[in-house]
Sequence to fold (420 residues):
Amino acid sequence: MGLAGTTDKGRWAGGHFFRAGCTLFLLAICLALSPVSRAADAPLNVTGYKMAGDATKLRIVMNFDREPDIKWFLLRGPNRLVIDLPRTKFAINAKDLKARGLVKGVRYGDLGESASRLILTGKGPFAVDKLDVLKNDDGNGYRIAIDMSAASEREFDAALADQTLTTGSTVSTDKGGRVGTGPISNPGHRFTVVLDPGHGGIDGGAEGLNGTIEKNVTLAFANELRDKLAAVGKYDVFLTRETDEFLRLDDRVRIARQHEADLLISIHADTISVKGIRGATVYTVSDKASDPQAQALADRENLSDQFAGMVIKDDNKEVTDILIDLIRRETHNFSMSFAHTLVGQLSTSVGLINNPQRSAGFKVLKAPDVPSVLVELGYLSNAKDEAQLLNADWRGKAAQSITNAVALFASARSGPGTGG
Ligand code: ZN
Fold:
């Protein structure tokens, strides 16, 4: 354990700070050593702490024995949410503080003699959608409820600037709405495409009849497509992964939001039990699958997270609600529109499956504000498709068709004068 906050440029008033891993035993020592007068007002007690959600959206609930008078603000480098409290005793189970989704670290401790502080470190930039102090329904104590969602550095910086402008250094809890996001004008923004090469690392994805591994095909294709899109000179293009690394599905969505993507294209090449079936397919997200095959495919792709040791519980109501909330209508319409354009373009150059525009509950397509499609380039279970995926000419044609579809979609979305 050590003193933290060395990057905070004097914001720290000192005190005993320690990491989430600190045991209650150490906590007891820290408190015993602190120069706080025991005769002073009894400290506030934190009686519970929970986080629920993932890397795109996270809810934090912290319970108190009585009403906490708090102040909160953002810090960057890394992206942090800081909550200042009166002197507080934290009786928190260490396992509840473990990194989860959007929050990669939780620390807390004393800040001088009469104050305490809790710091949530983001996995990347985030927005505080809501932060409320609420009275518990059963009349016992209060809670702080925080809703955070993945955002871009620009959005985070805007929130940071906003808090400095309006309140000096802190933002009080009565500030309504999502702080620092919403319609912030961003004149420098170019149409941004995030390409998501499916699978990676320990998750190899599907395997072809002749040994082709899906994660390698998807990365190679994404690199070619990136080069084609970049050559147009009008778009910013990013990959969710550039190496053979494992990435959770919600992290792929988080990365798209971090780049303020106007389009997310997830690239796959699956297998199917019927060997005769071949051709490309374009998927969008939906609550109800368009057909049993699409459902089966989404189930398989969603299994990706099992490699991260995540327990997948679709009946978890809290998380399900968050996911439903994420699929906003407008984004969905744009996704459908792009899928339609993409199918049209692909049909002129590469073979498509019957009914090539399909839908199912793909987790990687659930960004709330990023139109998203998943492209199955072909089936590795079909020898001809596998051979095509390894053929540079075929890949070039497919990448060109996707580039054409992006161009049509981007020009339709750019208002007059924005220049793409
Ligand atoms: Zn796949």
